[in-house]
Amino acid sequence: MQAWYRGAPWLWLLWPLSLLFGLVSGLRRCLFRHGLKAAYRAPVPVMVVGNLTVGGNGKTPMVIWLVEWLRKQGYNPGVISRGYGGNSDHYPLVLSNTTRAEQAGDEPVLIFKRTGCPVVVGPKRAEAAATLAGLGADIIISDDGLQHYALARDIELVVVDGKRRFGNGRLLPMGPLREGKWRLASVDAVINNGGPGDAGEYAMTLAPGELQPVSATGEPPAPGARVHAMAGIGHPPRFFTTLNEQGFILDKQLALADHKAVSPAQLAGLADAPLLMTEKDAVKWPGGHDNGWYLPVNARLPTEFEHMLSSRLKELNHGD
User: Fold this and answer.
1) Which residues are annotated as a binding site?
2) Whether residue 44 is found in the same domain as residue 94
3) How far is CA 270 from CA 57, 135, 219, 246, 315, in A?
4) What's the predicted TM-score (pTM) here?
5) N or C: which end of the chain has fewer CB within 10 A?
6) Any idea which positions bind ATP (predicted)?
7) What mean pLDDT, rounded, does the chain reach?
8) Residue % of the chain over a pLDDT of 70
9) Does residue 244 sit within a domain?
10) Is residue 165 located within the same domain as residue 279?
């Protein structure tokens, strides 16, 4: 909701609802903290990658980076996710090569295809974590779920959109926050995606890879070519800016809602040039354009973040 980031005055009409939201979420958090509501403790360490705001902040590239980094450290990681945008007949759902984005959600399918690690989807993250541990994962990464206190966690990482930050700084629905900014003081690390960061934040950058075919043959378009672009992510302008920085000339830009697949009607009129999309769009591609390409991105984190993470994991192992 762009009004959150423009500071629209009419949002003050929603202040009573934000107050109620804060009271309810605070009470729930208190119940878990004092053991009045039980949290599931998985048999292996749990690492949560979440955010304070609704919408995409770059968690998926961060999760993929963690999977690859943990493997280099000798771990066998797995990922759990709520699976937003998916609808399965049964949960927990263990992803396979035949799992579609309509079943599991686009982000879990993307993570599974990129990493090949076990991925389990379910609305109850405790059940998903138990299933994943049973598959042999020795560390669990929760894609989102910072506010899902029914699952105990050992490490909390928060990803912040470096450009949009926290909008007007208000709780839902008056603002984009799921929890107050005070929550940042209690997490293990704040990762700043693509913008000037505050003191103590770790800078993450997203490095574009090579264009990959979705519905195309032949050579991909080169920088300087006229193309169309589409993005169904939390903040589509970020993707369009990346393409501009790569040197592409964007003719038409199609911004979709997060997790939303493009429809044939929306593709009408885009056939006269190559269509570039995000990897997230590619995993739920319905067809309708014969020259489609996706641009993968890879997270880059500083060495200081790796050192911090190594220290935290050693502390957990020592505690065992």
Assistant:
1) 53-60
2) yes
3) 28, 44, 19, 20, 53
4) 0.94
5) C
6) 53-60
7) 94
8) 99
9) yes
10) no
